[in-house]
Specification:
about 575 residues; mainly alpha; 8 strands
Protein backbone atom coordinates (compact mmCIF):
# COMPACT_ATOMS: atom_id res chain seq x y z
CA UNK A 1 0.00 0.00 0.00
CA UNK A 2 2.85 2.39 0.77
CA UNK A 3 4.54 1.78 -2.57
CA UNK A 4 1.36 1.94 -4.65
CA UNK A 5 1.39 5.75 -5.22
CA UNK A 6 5.08 5.58 -6.14
CA UNK A 7 4.55 2.72 -8.55
CA UNK A 8 1.58 4.54 -10.09
CA UNK A 9 3.71 7.60 -10.71
CA UNK A 10 6.43 5.38 -12.16
CA UNK A 11 3.93 3.95 -14.63
CA UNK A 12 2.76 7.42 -15.61
CA UNK A 13 6.33 8.43 -16.32
CA UNK A 14 7.18 5.30 -18.26
CA UNK A 15 3.98 5.23 -20.38
CA UNK A 16 4.61 8.36 -22.55
CA UNK A 17 8.14 7.28 -23.33
CA UNK A 18 6.94 3.86 -24.40
CA UNK A 19 4.08 5.38 -26.43
CA UNK A 20 6.43 7.78 -28.19
CA UNK A 21 8.89 4.98 -28.95
CA UNK A 22 6.04 2.86 -30.33
CA UNK A 23 4.63 5.68 -32.49
CA UNK A 24 8.04 6.56 -33.91
CA UNK A 25 8.65 2.93 -34.78
CA UNK A 26 5.25 2.79 -36.47
CA UNK A 27 5.95 5.95 -38.47
CA UNK A 28 9.31 4.59 -39.59
CA UNK A 29 7.64 1.37 -40.56
CA UNK A 30 4.93 3.15 -42.59
CA UNK A 31 7.52 5.30 -44.33
CA UNK A 32 9.66 2.35 -45.28
CA UNK A 33 6.63 0.44 -46.59
CA UNK A 34 5.48 3.40 -48.75
CA UNK A 35 8.96 3.87 -50.11
CA UNK A 36 9.16 0.23 -51.01
CA UNK A 37 5.83 0.37 -52.84
CA UNK A 38 7.00 3.30 -54.93
CA UNK A 39 10.19 1.50 -55.84
CA UNK A 40 8.31 -1.67 -56.83
CA UNK A 41 6.09 0.42 -59.17
CA UNK A 42 9.19 1.72 -60.90
CA UNK A 43 8.72 5.28 -59.71
CA UNK A 44 11.33 7.38 -58.04
CA UNK A 45 10.99 8.02 -54.41
CA UNK A 46 9.86 11.55 -54.02
CA UNK A 47 11.63 13.58 -51.50
CA UNK A 48 9.36 14.01 -48.51
CA UNK A 49 8.42 17.61 -47.93
CA UNK A 50 9.54 19.07 -44.64
CA UNK A 51 6.95 18.80 -41.90
CA UNK A 52 5.34 22.09 -41.11
CA UNK A 53 6.12 23.55 -37.72
CA UNK A 54 3.07 22.87 -35.65
CA UNK A 55 4.27 25.16 -32.95
CA UNK A 56 3.65 22.45 -30.37
CA UNK A 57 5.39 22.93 -27.12
CA UNK A 58 5.99 20.79 -24.06
CA UNK A 59 2.77 19.55 -22.55
CA UNK A 60 0.73 20.14 -25.75
CA UNK A 61 -0.81 17.58 -28.05
CA UNK A 62 -0.04 16.64 -31.68
CA UNK A 63 -2.29 15.08 -34.35
CA UNK A 64 -1.81 11.41 -35.07
CA UNK A 65 -2.63 9.67 -38.37
CA UNK A 66 -6.32 9.57 -37.52
CA UNK A 67 -6.48 13.25 -36.70
CA UNK A 68 -6.85 12.64 -32.97
CA UNK A 69 -4.86 14.55 -30.41
CA UNK A 70 -2.15 12.53 -28.62
CA UNK A 71 -0.07 13.91 -25.74
CA UNK A 72 3.65 13.99 -26.43
CA UNK A 73 4.57 13.93 -22.74
CA UNK A 74 3.19 14.42 -19.30
CA UNK A 75 4.44 17.78 -18.14
CA UNK A 76 7.79 17.79 -19.94
CA UNK A 77 10.37 16.53 -22.38
CA UNK A 78 10.18 12.75 -22.97
CA UNK A 79 13.96 12.49 -22.53
CA UNK A 80 13.68 14.01 -19.07
CA UNK A 81 10.81 11.72 -18.23
CA UNK A 82 12.85 8.68 -19.15
CA UNK A 83 15.60 9.98 -16.91
CA UNK A 84 13.05 10.47 -14.12
CA UNK A 85 11.87 6.90 -14.58
CA UNK A 86 15.45 5.59 -14.35
CA UNK A 87 16.12 7.59 -11.18
CA UNK A 88 12.88 6.39 -9.64
CA UNK A 89 13.80 2.83 -10.50
CA UNK A 90 17.11 3.15 -8.64
CA UNK A 91 15.41 4.76 -5.65
CA UNK A 92 12.90 1.91 -5.42
CA UNK A 93 15.67 -0.65 -5.88
CA UNK A 94 17.76 0.98 -3.20
CA UNK A 95 14.84 1.03 -0.73
CA UNK A 96 13.99 -2.60 -1.47
CA UNK A 97 17.56 -3.79 -0.98
CA UNK A 98 17.85 -1.70 2.17
CA UNK A 99 14.79 -3.46 3.57
CA UNK A 100 16.30 -6.84 2.66
CA UNK A 101 19.52 -5.80 4.40
CA UNK A 102 17.58 -5.23 7.61
CA UNK A 103 15.96 -8.66 7.30
CA UNK A 104 18.93 -10.74 6.09
CA UNK A 105 22.40 -9.80 7.27
CA UNK A 106 24.30 -11.06 4.21
CA UNK A 107 22.12 -8.98 1.84
CA UNK A 108 23.31 -5.67 3.29
CA UNK A 109 25.84 -5.52 0.48
CA UNK A 110 23.09 -5.52 -2.17
CA UNK A 111 22.02 -1.89 -1.74
CA UNK A 112 25.59 -0.64 -2.30
CA UNK A 113 25.48 -0.35 -6.13
CA UNK A 114 22.14 1.58 -6.20
CA UNK A 115 23.52 3.85 -3.50
CA UNK A 116 26.54 4.61 -5.71
CA UNK A 117 24.30 5.43 -8.66
CA UNK A 118 22.17 7.79 -6.57
CA UNK A 119 25.28 9.45 -5.15
CA UNK A 120 26.68 9.96 -8.65
CA UNK A 121 23.42 11.57 -9.79
CA UNK A 122 24.24 14.57 -7.59
CA UNK A 123 26.87 15.56 -10.13
CA UNK A 124 24.51 15.11 -13.07
CA UNK A 125 22.32 17.77 -14.67
CA UNK A 126 19.59 17.18 -12.07
CA UNK A 127 19.73 16.30 -8.40
CA UNK A 128 16.59 14.18 -8.41
CA UNK A 129 13.50 13.44 -10.46
CA UNK A 130 11.30 16.44 -11.38
CA UNK A 131 14.10 18.85 -10.43
CA UNK A 132 16.28 20.72 -12.92
CA UNK A 133 19.35 22.59 -11.87
CA UNK A 134 19.00 25.68 -14.02
CA UNK A 135 20.41 28.73 -12.26
CA UNK A 136 20.46 26.89 -8.93
CA UNK A 137 23.48 24.86 -9.97
CA UNK A 138 25.94 27.60 -9.06
CA UNK A 139 24.44 27.75 -5.56
CA UNK A 140 23.59 24.15 -4.76
CA UNK A 141 26.93 22.58 -5.65
CA UNK A 142 29.00 24.90 -3.38
CA UNK A 143 26.46 24.34 -0.60
CA UNK A 144 26.77 20.58 -0.95
CA UNK A 145 30.57 20.87 -1.01
CA UNK A 146 30.56 22.89 2.22
CA UNK A 147 28.24 20.37 3.88
CA UNK A 148 30.53 17.54 2.76
CA UNK A 149 33.63 19.25 4.17
CA UNK A 150 31.83 19.83 7.48
CA UNK A 151 30.83 16.20 7.60
CA UNK A 152 34.39 15.02 6.86
CA UNK A 153 35.73 17.31 9.60
CA UNK A 154 33.33 15.77 12.08
CA UNK A 155 34.28 12.25 11.01
CA UNK A 156 38.03 12.93 11.24
CA UNK A 157 37.44 14.35 14.71
CA UNK A 158 36.25 10.93 15.84
CA UNK A 159 39.44 9.16 14.75
CA UNK A 160 40.77 6.64 15.46
CA UNK A 161 37.55 5.28 17.00
CA UNK A 162 34.05 6.57 17.50
CA UNK A 163 33.89 4.71 20.83
CA UNK A 164 36.00 2.42 23.05
CA UNK A 165 34.67 -0.74 21.35
CA UNK A 166 33.67 0.67 17.95
CA UNK A 167 35.47 0.54 14.65
CA UNK A 168 39.10 -0.51 14.77
CA UNK A 169 39.15 -0.16 18.57
CA UNK A 170 36.88 -3.18 18.71
CA UNK A 171 39.69 -5.21 17.12
CA UNK A 172 42.41 -4.18 19.59
CA UNK A 173 42.05 -7.21 21.81
CA UNK A 174 43.30 -10.78 21.88
CA UNK A 175 41.59 -13.12 19.42
CA UNK A 176 40.62 -16.57 20.64
CA UNK A 177 38.65 -19.22 18.78
CA UNK A 178 37.58 -22.79 19.55
CA UNK A 179 38.32 -24.00 16.02
CA UNK A 180 41.11 -26.23 17.28
CA UNK A 181 38.69 -29.15 17.56
CA UNK A 182 37.64 -28.57 13.95
CA UNK A 183 41.28 -28.49 12.76
CA UNK A 184 41.88 -31.70 14.69
CA UNK A 185 38.83 -33.34 13.10
CA UNK A 186 39.87 -32.41 9.56
CA UNK A 187 43.41 -33.63 10.11
CA UNK A 188 42.12 -36.96 11.41
CA UNK A 189 39.76 -37.33 8.43
CA UNK A 190 42.60 -36.72 5.97
CA UNK A 191 44.85 -39.21 7.74
CA UNK A 192 42.54 -42.06 8.78
CA UNK A 193 39.16 -41.89 7.04
CA UNK A 194 39.14 -43.63 3.61
CA UNK A 195 38.84 -41.07 0.83
CA UNK A 196 35.64 -40.95 -1.11
CA UNK A 197 33.57 -42.14 1.85
CA UNK A 198 30.28 -40.13 1.87
CA UNK A 199 29.89 -38.07 5.04
CA UNK A 200 26.72 -36.75 6.67
CA UNK A 201 27.13 -33.61 8.77
CA UNK A 202 25.23 -30.41 9.43
CA UNK A 203 25.05 -27.87 6.63
CA UNK A 204 27.43 -25.40 8.31
CA UNK A 205 30.01 -28.03 9.20
CA UNK A 206 29.83 -29.70 5.78
CA UNK A 207 30.44 -26.36 4.04
CA UNK A 208 33.72 -26.00 5.94
CA UNK A 209 34.82 -29.61 5.56
CA UNK A 210 34.42 -29.53 1.76
CA UNK A 211 37.34 -27.10 1.50
CA UNK A 212 39.79 -29.29 3.44
CA UNK A 213 38.98 -32.99 3.12
CA UNK A 214 38.58 -35.41 0.25
CA UNK A 215 35.17 -36.79 1.17
CA UNK A 216 31.83 -36.05 -0.53
CA UNK A 217 29.26 -34.32 1.68
CA UNK A 218 25.63 -35.42 1.68
CA UNK A 219 24.40 -31.87 2.32
CA UNK A 220 26.12 -28.53 1.92
CA UNK A 221 25.21 -24.81 1.82
CA UNK A 222 23.45 -24.51 -1.54
CA UNK A 223 20.23 -22.81 -0.51
CA UNK A 224 18.72 -22.49 -3.98
CA UNK A 225 18.57 -26.26 -4.50
CA UNK A 226 15.14 -27.81 -3.94
CA UNK A 227 16.66 -31.28 -3.82
CA UNK A 228 19.06 -30.14 -1.10
CA UNK A 229 16.18 -28.88 1.04
CA UNK A 230 14.59 -32.30 0.88
CA UNK A 231 17.85 -33.98 1.84
CA UNK A 232 18.31 -31.59 4.77
CA UNK A 233 14.83 -32.44 6.03
CA UNK A 234 15.76 -36.12 6.11
CA UNK A 235 19.38 -35.70 7.22
CA UNK A 236 18.67 -33.50 10.22
CA UNK A 237 17.22 -36.49 11.98
CA UNK A 238 20.76 -36.72 13.38
CA UNK A 239 19.91 -33.99 15.92
CA UNK A 240 16.57 -35.51 16.92
CA UNK A 241 15.20 -38.52 18.75
CA UNK A 242 14.57 -41.15 16.09
CA UNK A 243 15.47 -44.73 16.74
CA UNK A 244 18.86 -46.13 15.89
CA UNK A 245 17.38 -48.31 13.16
CA UNK A 246 15.35 -45.48 11.59
CA UNK A 247 18.44 -43.28 11.44
CA UNK A 248 20.39 -46.12 9.84
CA UNK A 249 17.72 -46.38 7.16
CA UNK A 250 17.86 -42.61 6.63
CA UNK A 251 21.61 -42.77 6.11
CA UNK A 252 21.21 -45.65 3.66
CA UNK A 253 18.62 -43.70 1.67
CA UNK A 254 21.07 -40.78 1.49
CA UNK A 255 24.03 -43.05 0.60
CA UNK A 256 25.89 -41.85 3.72
CA UNK A 257 28.47 -44.09 5.36
CA UNK A 258 29.73 -41.80 8.13
CA UNK A 259 27.97 -39.28 10.37
CA UNK A 260 29.59 -36.44 12.32
CA UNK A 261 27.94 -34.97 15.41
CA UNK A 262 28.73 -31.53 16.83
CA UNK A 263 28.55 -31.73 20.60
CA UNK A 264 27.72 -28.03 20.77
CA UNK A 265 24.44 -28.82 18.97
CA UNK A 266 23.52 -31.82 21.12
CA UNK A 267 20.35 -30.36 22.64
CA UNK A 268 16.64 -30.23 21.87
CA UNK A 269 16.78 -28.26 18.64
CA UNK A 270 13.93 -25.97 17.55
CA UNK A 271 14.39 -27.24 13.98
CA UNK A 272 11.50 -29.66 13.44
CA UNK A 273 11.16 -32.48 10.94
CA UNK A 274 8.20 -33.25 8.71
CA UNK A 275 8.15 -36.74 10.19
CA UNK A 276 7.06 -35.73 13.68
CA UNK A 277 7.63 -39.20 15.07
CA UNK A 278 11.37 -38.48 15.01
CA UNK A 279 11.25 -35.01 16.62
CA UNK A 280 12.55 -34.42 20.12
CA UNK A 281 9.69 -33.12 22.27
CA UNK A 282 10.27 -31.74 25.74
CA UNK A 283 8.19 -33.54 28.29
CA UNK A 284 7.97 -36.64 26.10
CA UNK A 285 11.64 -37.39 25.45
CA UNK A 286 14.66 -37.47 27.72
CA UNK A 287 18.06 -36.01 26.70
CA UNK A 288 19.34 -39.58 26.35
CA UNK A 289 16.83 -40.12 23.51
CA UNK A 290 18.93 -37.87 21.29
CA UNK A 291 20.96 -39.71 18.67
CA UNK A 292 24.04 -37.60 19.45
CA UNK A 293 24.11 -39.25 22.91
CA UNK A 294 22.66 -42.72 22.55
CA UNK A 295 24.83 -43.73 19.59
CA UNK A 296 27.76 -43.84 22.04
CA UNK A 297 26.08 -46.95 23.47
CA UNK A 298 24.97 -48.24 20.07
CA UNK A 299 23.35 -51.67 19.98
CA UNK A 300 25.30 -52.61 16.88
CA UNK A 301 24.40 -50.35 13.96
CA UNK A 302 27.02 -47.66 14.61
CA UNK A 303 30.69 -47.70 15.54
CA UNK A 304 32.55 -44.80 17.17
CA UNK A 305 35.59 -43.85 15.08
CA UNK A 306 36.71 -40.53 16.57
CA UNK A 307 35.96 -38.13 19.39
CA UNK A 308 37.55 -34.96 20.73
CA UNK A 309 36.43 -31.81 22.52
CA UNK A 310 33.95 -30.78 19.84
CA UNK A 311 32.97 -33.67 17.56
CA UNK A 312 32.26 -37.38 17.37
CA UNK A 313 32.33 -39.54 14.22
CA UNK A 314 30.36 -42.77 13.77
CA UNK A 315 30.37 -45.26 10.91
CA UNK A 316 27.28 -47.15 9.80
CA UNK A 317 27.77 -50.92 9.99
CA UNK A 318 26.07 -53.78 8.15
CA UNK A 319 24.58 -55.27 11.28
CA UNK A 320 21.18 -55.42 12.88
CA UNK A 321 20.37 -53.14 15.76
CA UNK A 322 19.35 -54.72 19.03
CA UNK A 323 16.59 -53.64 21.33
CA UNK A 324 16.73 -49.92 22.09
CA UNK A 325 17.68 -49.30 25.75
CA UNK A 326 15.69 -46.99 27.99
CA UNK A 327 17.04 -43.46 28.67
CA UNK A 328 17.98 -44.39 32.23
CA UNK A 329 20.03 -47.33 30.96
CA UNK A 330 21.74 -45.09 28.39
CA UNK A 331 22.67 -42.55 31.09
CA UNK A 332 24.17 -45.30 33.25
CA UNK A 333 26.01 -46.97 30.37
CA UNK A 334 27.65 -43.72 29.26
CA UNK A 335 29.47 -43.49 32.59
CA UNK A 336 30.69 -47.11 32.58
CA UNK A 337 34.32 -47.74 31.50
CA UNK A 338 33.25 -50.82 29.51
CA UNK A 339 31.34 -48.55 27.11
CA UNK A 340 34.57 -46.81 26.12
CA UNK A 341 37.22 -49.52 26.49
CA UNK A 342 37.00 -50.88 22.93
CA UNK A 343 37.17 -47.39 21.46
CA UNK A 344 40.18 -46.46 23.62
CA UNK A 345 42.00 -49.60 22.42
CA UNK A 346 41.34 -48.74 18.75
CA UNK A 347 42.21 -45.10 19.36
CA UNK A 348 45.55 -45.94 20.96
CA UNK A 349 46.55 -48.27 18.10
CA UNK A 350 45.36 -46.06 15.23
CA UNK A 351 45.80 -42.47 16.45
CA UNK A 352 48.99 -42.87 18.47
CA UNK A 353 50.14 -39.93 20.57
CA UNK A 354 47.10 -37.83 19.71
CA UNK A 355 44.65 -40.26 21.31
CA UNK A 356 45.35 -39.30 24.94
CA UNK A 357 44.93 -35.54 24.47
CA UNK A 358 41.74 -36.09 22.46
CA UNK A 359 40.29 -38.18 25.26
CA UNK A 360 41.25 -35.51 27.80
CA UNK A 361 39.57 -32.80 25.72
CA UNK A 362 36.50 -35.00 25.30
CA UNK A 363 36.34 -35.37 29.08
CA UNK A 364 36.36 -31.57 29.43
CA UNK A 365 33.52 -31.37 26.91
CA UNK A 366 31.38 -33.94 28.74
CA UNK A 367 31.95 -32.00 31.97
CA UNK A 368 31.40 -28.43 30.78
CA UNK A 369 29.42 -28.88 27.57
CA UNK A 370 27.06 -31.79 28.16
CA UNK A 371 27.09 -31.42 31.97
CA UNK A 372 27.77 -35.10 32.65
CA UNK A 373 30.58 -35.21 35.24
CA UNK A 374 30.45 -39.01 35.67
CA UNK A 375 31.15 -39.58 31.98
CA UNK A 376 33.93 -36.99 32.12
CA UNK A 377 35.50 -38.73 35.12
CA UNK A 378 35.44 -42.06 33.28
CA UNK A 379 37.16 -40.65 30.20
CA UNK A 380 39.69 -38.73 32.27
CA UNK A 381 40.63 -41.83 34.24
CA UNK A 382 40.90 -43.98 31.12
CA UNK A 383 43.20 -41.42 29.49
CA UNK A 384 45.39 -41.18 32.60
CA UNK A 385 45.67 -44.97 32.95
CA UNK A 386 46.44 -45.58 29.26
CA UNK A 387 48.74 -42.57 28.70
CA UNK A 388 50.42 -41.78 32.06
CA UNK A 389 53.52 -40.25 30.46
CA UNK A 390 51.65 -37.97 28.07
CA UNK A 391 52.29 -34.34 29.04
CA UNK A 392 48.96 -33.08 27.71
CA UNK A 393 46.99 -35.72 29.60
CA UNK A 394 48.83 -34.73 32.79
CA UNK A 395 48.15 -31.07 32.07
CA UNK A 396 44.40 -31.62 31.63
CA UNK A 397 44.31 -33.64 34.83
CA UNK A 398 46.08 -30.83 36.68
CA UNK A 399 43.77 -28.25 35.18
CA UNK A 400 40.72 -30.23 36.28
CA UNK A 401 42.01 -30.49 39.84
CA UNK A 402 43.04 -26.82 39.89
CA UNK A 403 40.05 -25.10 38.27
CA UNK A 404 37.11 -27.50 38.49
CA UNK A 405 37.62 -29.69 41.56
CA UNK A 406 39.26 -26.85 43.55
CA UNK A 407 41.91 -29.30 44.82
CA UNK A 408 44.77 -26.99 43.96
CA UNK A 409 47.47 -28.67 46.05
CA UNK A 410 46.89 -31.99 44.28
CA UNK A 411 47.37 -30.34 40.88
CA UNK A 412 51.06 -29.56 41.49
CA UNK A 413 52.57 -32.99 40.70
CA UNK A 414 50.58 -33.20 37.48
CA UNK A 415 51.72 -29.71 36.45
CA UNK A 416 55.31 -30.73 37.14
CA UNK A 417 55.05 -33.91 35.06
CA UNK A 418 53.47 -31.94 32.22
CA UNK A 419 56.24 -29.31 32.34
CA UNK A 420 58.91 -32.00 32.17
CA UNK A 421 57.24 -33.73 29.24
CA UNK A 422 56.54 -30.46 27.36
CA UNK A 423 59.44 -28.12 28.23
CA UNK A 424 58.71 -25.74 25.33
CA UNK A 425 54.93 -25.49 25.66
CA UNK A 426 54.12 -21.95 26.79
CA UNK A 427 50.69 -22.82 28.27
CA UNK A 428 52.02 -25.67 30.38
CA UNK A 429 54.97 -23.60 31.63
CA UNK A 430 52.75 -20.64 32.52
CA UNK A 431 50.34 -22.76 34.56
CA UNK A 432 53.20 -24.46 36.39
CA UNK A 433 54.95 -21.15 37.01
CA UNK A 434 51.81 -19.56 38.47
CA UNK A 435 51.16 -22.63 40.62
CA UNK A 436 54.69 -22.41 42.07
CA UNK A 437 54.31 -18.69 42.66
CA UNK A 438 50.78 -18.38 44.02
CA UNK A 439 49.97 -21.80 45.51
CA UNK A 440 53.20 -23.60 46.47
CA UNK A 441 55.10 -20.32 47.10
CA UNK A 442 58.30 -22.23 46.40
CA UNK A 443 60.81 -19.54 45.47
CA UNK A 444 63.63 -22.02 45.03
CA UNK A 445 61.94 -24.05 42.30
CA UNK A 446 60.54 -20.83 40.83
CA UNK A 447 64.02 -19.33 40.44
CA UNK A 448 65.30 -22.57 38.92
CA UNK A 449 62.50 -22.56 36.37
CA UNK A 450 63.00 -18.89 35.46
CA UNK A 451 66.77 -19.27 35.10
CA UNK A 452 66.71 -22.70 33.49
CA UNK A 453 69.77 -23.60 31.51
CA UNK A 454 69.19 -27.18 30.35
CA UNK A 455 66.26 -26.24 28.10
CA UNK A 456 65.61 -23.39 25.70
CA UNK A 457 65.52 -20.02 27.38
CA UNK A 458 62.02 -18.66 27.94
CA UNK A 459 62.92 -15.61 25.87
CA UNK A 460 63.63 -17.87 22.88
CA UNK A 461 60.28 -19.67 22.85
CA UNK A 462 57.90 -19.22 19.92
CA UNK A 463 54.23 -19.93 19.33
CA UNK A 464 50.92 -18.97 20.87
CA UNK A 465 50.86 -18.31 24.59
CA UNK A 466 54.45 -17.07 24.74
CA UNK A 467 53.45 -13.44 25.40
CA UNK A 468 51.33 -14.44 28.41
CA UNK A 469 54.13 -16.68 29.72
CA UNK A 470 56.71 -13.88 29.53
CA UNK A 471 54.27 -11.44 31.08
CA UNK A 472 53.67 -13.68 34.10
CA UNK A 473 57.37 -14.56 34.27
CA UNK A 474 58.19 -10.84 34.51
CA UNK A 475 55.96 -10.43 37.57
CA UNK A 476 57.27 -13.62 39.22
CA UNK A 477 60.91 -12.68 38.52
CA UNK A 478 60.40 -9.34 40.23
CA UNK A 479 58.88 -11.05 43.26
CA UNK A 480 61.90 -13.35 43.73
CA UNK A 481 64.43 -10.55 43.23
CA UNK A 482 65.51 -11.19 39.62
CA UNK A 483 65.03 -7.57 38.51
CA UNK A 484 67.19 -7.67 35.39
CA UNK A 485 65.53 -10.84 34.14
CA UNK A 486 62.14 -9.35 34.96
CA UNK A 487 62.83 -6.30 32.79
CA UNK A 488 63.89 -8.51 29.89
CA UNK A 489 60.75 -10.64 30.18
CA UNK A 490 58.59 -7.53 30.44
CA UNK A 491 60.18 -5.82 27.43
CA UNK A 492 59.65 -8.92 25.28
CA UNK A 493 56.04 -9.32 26.46
CA UNK A 494 55.25 -5.68 25.60
CA UNK A 495 56.88 -6.03 22.22
CA UNK A 496 54.93 -9.17 21.32
CA UNK A 497 51.52 -8.31 22.81
CA UNK A 498 51.35 -4.67 23.98
CA UNK A 499 47.54 -4.78 24.01
CA UNK A 500 47.24 -8.16 25.76
CA UNK A 501 45.16 -8.63 28.89
CA UNK A 502 48.15 -9.88 30.90
CA UNK A 503 50.12 -6.73 30.10
CA UNK A 504 47.19 -4.60 31.19
CA UNK A 505 46.68 -6.60 34.42
CA UNK A 506 50.37 -6.70 35.40
CA UNK A 507 51.08 -3.08 34.41
CA UNK A 508 50.60 -1.73 37.98
CA UNK A 509 53.11 -4.32 39.28
CA UNK A 510 55.83 -3.30 36.84
CA UNK A 511 54.89 0.41 36.60
CA UNK A 512 53.48 1.37 40.02
CA UNK A 513 53.70 5.11 39.33
CA UNK A 514 51.93 5.11 35.97
CA UNK A 515 48.58 3.68 34.95
CA UNK A 516 48.05 1.70 31.78
CA UNK A 517 45.25 3.97 30.55
CA UNK A 518 47.37 7.07 31.13
CA UNK A 519 50.09 5.68 28.90
CA UNK A 520 47.76 4.20 26.29
CA UNK A 521 45.15 6.56 24.95
CA UNK A 522 43.18 5.78 21.78
CA UNK A 523 45.91 6.94 19.40
CA UNK A 524 48.67 5.14 21.33
CA UNK A 525 46.71 1.89 21.22
CA UNK A 526 46.04 2.46 17.53
CA UNK A 527 49.75 2.72 16.70
CA UNK A 528 50.52 -0.29 18.91
CA UNK A 529 47.90 -2.22 16.99
CA UNK A 530 49.40 -1.17 13.65
CA UNK A 531 52.98 -1.97 14.66
CA UNK A 532 52.57 -5.13 16.77
CA UNK A 533 49.03 -6.37 16.14
CA UNK A 534 47.26 -8.66 18.58
CA UNK A 535 47.72 -12.29 19.50
CA UNK A 536 45.58 -15.01 17.91
CA UNK A 537 45.10 -18.45 19.38
CA UNK A 538 43.06 -21.49 18.40
CA UNK A 539 41.98 -23.80 21.18
CA UNK A 540 39.44 -26.46 22.04
CA UNK A 541 35.80 -25.80 22.85
CA UNK A 542 36.34 -26.41 26.55
CA UNK A 543 40.07 -25.96 27.03
CA UNK A 544 43.02 -23.71 26.24
CA UNK A 545 45.16 -23.83 23.11
CA UNK A 546 47.74 -26.02 24.82
CA UNK A 547 47.68 -28.66 22.06
CA UNK A 548 48.28 -26.03 19.39
CA UNK A 549 50.96 -24.00 21.15
CA UNK A 550 54.10 -25.21 19.41
CA UNK A 551 54.35 -24.35 15.69
CA UNK A 552 53.93 -27.31 13.33
CA UNK A 553 52.47 -28.14 9.95
CA UNK A 554 48.84 -29.31 9.94
CA UNK A 555 47.66 -31.80 7.33
CA UNK A 556 44.56 -29.96 6.17
CA UNK A 557 44.29 -31.41 2.67
CA UNK A 558 44.71 -34.82 1.06
CA UNK A 559 47.67 -33.45 -0.89
CA UNK A 560 49.40 -32.46 2.37
CA UNK A 561 48.93 -36.00 3.70
CA UNK A 562 50.37 -37.52 0.53
CA UNK A 563 53.34 -35.17 0.69
CA UNK A 564 54.02 -36.02 4.34
CA UNK A 565 53.80 -39.76 3.65
CA UNK A 566 56.16 -39.48 0.68
CA UNK A 567 58.66 -37.58 2.81
CA UNK A 568 58.40 -40.19 5.57
CA UNK A 569 58.90 -42.99 3.03
CA UNK A 570 62.13 -41.39 1.80
CA UNK A 571 63.47 -41.33 5.33
Amino acid sequence: CLLRPVVTQFCKLAEPAARQAGSSDMADSKGSVAEGLRKRKGGKADKAPPAPDSGARRGTAADDDDGEKQPTSVGGDPELEREDAALLFFVLQFMSFLLLGFLVNRLRVAFGPPLMVLAASVFGPRLAAWMTWGRMRSLVLPALAVMHVCYLSWVFGLFPCAGPEEGICGQMSEKKTNDGDLVDLMEWMNQHLPRGLPVLASMNLAGTLRAFVGHPMIIHPQFESENLRKRVQRAYELYHCGTEESFAQTMLSLSAKVVIFEYARCFFTPYTLDDRRKNCIKGKHEPEDQLCLKLHVSTGRFKLLFTNGGYSVFRLQNTTAGKAPRPSVIAKSLAEPSTWTNYVDRCASQQGDTCGPRLAEAAAMWLHGLKRPKVAQTLRQLALERFPQDGLVQYYMARYLDYDAKRTREAGPHYELAARALPNNAYVLREYLMWLDMEAKDKGRLQTMLQRRNERQLLDLMGTGVAELLCEAAASSKDVGLSDLSQRFWAKAKAVAPLGKCVQNNWPLLHPNEGYEERHDAWARFWKFVSAGVTHETGAHHGPAVRYAEPREYLLSPAAVDKARAKAAKR
